[in-house]
Write a structure and sequence with these properties.
Helices cover about 35% and strands about 15% of the residues. With about 325 residues, the protein is an alpha/beta fold. It has a single domain, classed as Rossmann fold (3-Layer(aba) Sandwich).
């Protein structure tokens, strides 16, 4: 059921580059979940929902990219997934031993799954009175976007899956060099988080499009200040490691799709992107040399053009 609500036109306050930008607003997600979201562009534009990846708040969708998309005719909606940013931090304890068991294929009961996170996104569309939207997701966000298209096909006009995978364990694997860094014990607090985050981005970022270390550190500090939750990220990690293999179901998908992946991605091997594109009939595969597991500003035009091109096929 679509719940029509008054649009937050009075919340639009930033008109940089001629693009309307809302303040941060709140909407109901799944049961017991409240989502923080923000919009860019005119509500009469083509709705585009942006879904971020593991541990990433909506602010990881760079405002410059959001404005670029709005300038291409989209009504852009970015939001904090549950357990990130200003959205609800849900309950449920997850330990590293649970993650190891899940990673090895043993049965583990997660507090929630990718399907629940996809339901959050659909609830946000309901709140905004949108019957459907173009959906673009990064990494875990790509898994959520794929699941939305499978569970609620009438709600997804087009699908852009960026540096993601199908859930099949034999594709989209992590580089072994990352595991010690990802599982290393870190101290508590803002400084420890920021330094640990910077170390990870140094490994998984795009080698042909390097980031300024000072910018990476500032982004990490802003992420922590926005509402970092280590336990929340563990819950998201368990949702990812317990996800279903969507390959067979993706064969039945009938929606314009773009799959974007970097050839230098160490977090999700490019085989994940290739498998996703092979599974979705008619999908376009865009492999970008030298791109890792991030969204370099130098590629914003490429991303925006690809999302627009895919939406135009709908």
């Amino acid at each position: 059921m679509i719940v029509m609500v008054a649009q937050p036109s009075d919340q639009h306050h930033d008109t940089a580059a001629g693009v309307l930008v809302s303040g941060e607003l709140f909407a109901p997600g799944g049961p017991g979940v409240e989502l923080c979201y923000q919009t860019f562009g005119d509500h009469d534009g083509d709705p585009l929902l942006l879904v971020m990846g593991l541990g990433g708040p909506m602010t990881w969708w760079d405002p410059a990219l959001c404005r670029m998309l709005a300038e291409r005719g989209f009504y852009v909606i970015r939001y904090d997934n549950r357990d990130t940013g200003r959205s609800t931090k849900v309950g449920g304890r997850v330990t590293w031993s649970m993650l190891v068991r899940a990673f090895s294929g043993r049965r583990v009961r997660p507090p929630y799954g990718i399907t629940d996170m996809a339901a959050d996104a659909v609830a946000l569309l309901d709140h905004l009175g949108l019957e459907s939207a173009h959906v673009a997701g990064v990494s875990m966000g790509g898994m959520i976007a794929q699941t939305m298209a499978l569970e609620q096909p009438r709600r997804v006009r087009s699908l852009t899956s960026i540096m993601s995978t199908t859930g099949k364990r034999s594709v989209g694997w992590q580089h072994p060099r990352l595991l010690p860094v990802l599982m290393a014990r870190r101290g508590r607090g803002r400084t420890a988080y920021a330094q640990g985050s910077a170390a990870i981005w140094a490994l998984i970022g795009s080698p042909l499009y390097p980031n300024d270390p000072a910018d990476v550190l500032a982004k990490a500090e802003a992420t922590f200040d926005r509402g970092w939750s280590n336990s929340g990220v563990l819950r998201q990690m368990l949702a990812v490691t317990t996800q279903a293999n969507r390959t067979q179901r993706l064969h039945a998908l009938r929606v314009p799709a773009l799959v974007v992946h970097g050839t230098a991605d160490k977090m999700v091997h490019p085989s994940g992107g290739r498998a996703t594109a092979a599974a979705i009939p008619g999908a376009e595969l865009l492999l970008i040399d030298g791109m890792g597991h991030d969204l370099p500003p130098a590629l914003f035009e490429t991303f925006a053009d690809g999302i627009r091109r895919t939406a135009d096929r709908a």
